[in-house]
Amino acid sequence: MRGAPFDGYHRREVPPDPELTQVGPGTPCGEYLRRFWQPVAFVRDLAATPLRAQILGEDLVVFRDCGGRVGALHLHCAHRGTSLEFGIPVERGIRCCYHGWVYDVDGRCLETPGEPPGSRLKERVWQGAYPTLEFAGLVFAYLGPPDRRPTFPIYDSYDVPGYRLMPAAKFVLPCNWLQVKDNSMDPVHTAFLHALSSGYQFTQAFGVVPEIDWHPTEAGMVYVATRRVGDLVWVRVADFMPPNVHQFTREIEDAAEAKPASRPVIIRWAVPNDDTHTTNFELAQVDPAWGLTADRVGQPGFGQSDDRTYAERQRFPADFDAQSSQREIAVHALENLGSADRGVIMLRRIVRDGVRAVAGGGDPLGAHWPEGKIIRTFTQDVVLRIPPAPSPEDDRRLLRATGRSVIAPGGD
What we know:
- This protein has nine helices and 22 strands.
- By secondary structure, it is of the alpha+beta class.
- Strands 13, 14, 15, 16, 17, 18, 19, 20 and 22 form a nine-stranded antiparallel sheet that branches. Strands 2-3-4-9 form a four-stranded antiparallel sheet, with no helix packed on it. It has a four-stranded antiparallel sheet with strand order 5-6-7-8, with no helix packed on it.
- β7 (102-103) and β8 form a beta hairpin.
- The chain starts with 17 loop residues before the first helix and ends in a 5-residue tail after the last helix.
- The model has no long low-confidence stretch (mean pLDDT 93).
């Protein structure tokens, strides 16, 4: 949008981008997101009582029956609409508290106890249901067309030698899913939001504005942020795996000495509850030597949630504040994107191409991997001893070339 002096009057009522931000049933982006397995709960949260959840604009109940199976059903009983969050898990399925109807995890009605003997009503009743699977302490559900159900993708970052993959944090942001995910391919913000403008939230090394590059990969895309720290070069790489997964490595790197590559620490899904609320689900790769308890691993990192006072968040804003304050749904038409936003542009293009592929009857990138394939990713921190080039411009080229070499075949 072109500007003019005092033109606020002309900048009202600008709509968001519905193709990328609306997630309910039948919306273009909602149908795209439904082509992938989405986290809906942590296993640790499936207690004796059912769990109410909202995913992609749908109200669900997630539960474990007494036979050990996990179900994800539409929330409201097909009989009279009572919420199954008040239901009773039984050996096979869940019993509605109101009239005792029982539904299996596939939605089949098993019992209608108020009906007369010989009634065949249960044979005609099905509760809406979705397939589930458990992985690394997370419960995933597939909300898409049954005949397009994909295999569950297995990334190489799920198996890091010497580390244990653990369920980690869950936290909600009051904004659209896409602006949460945009942040994952915006490494410039780490120098400002986490260092120069808000105070050093991680280490002093983050205060160096990096040389940045972005590259498509088989799994999606990566950013490569390369920083000069004296005679050392610190390369930080993060992956985005469509539609809504990204991973990053440790945030305590001070780049004070050369060290080999570290692998991902956090793998994060940004799952839309609805158009204006997003739940982040995390898995963590934990070194047993850190001595972290499950409770500690399950806490959001600094600034990821609204666990600080508003006054403190105003003085020292972090990711939660920067992302959620872009409006409930960020308005792309009002943005003025620059060269440092190329990663955001690429990410949105991947999503938009996926949305349009689904709308055209096809499959989006990342929806169908061969059974048993281990999907390569690149997330890492590595610090290399490389003296500066003779001139600032030559050193910038050296930094970019070094960053590219890290993700080249055989470079990691």
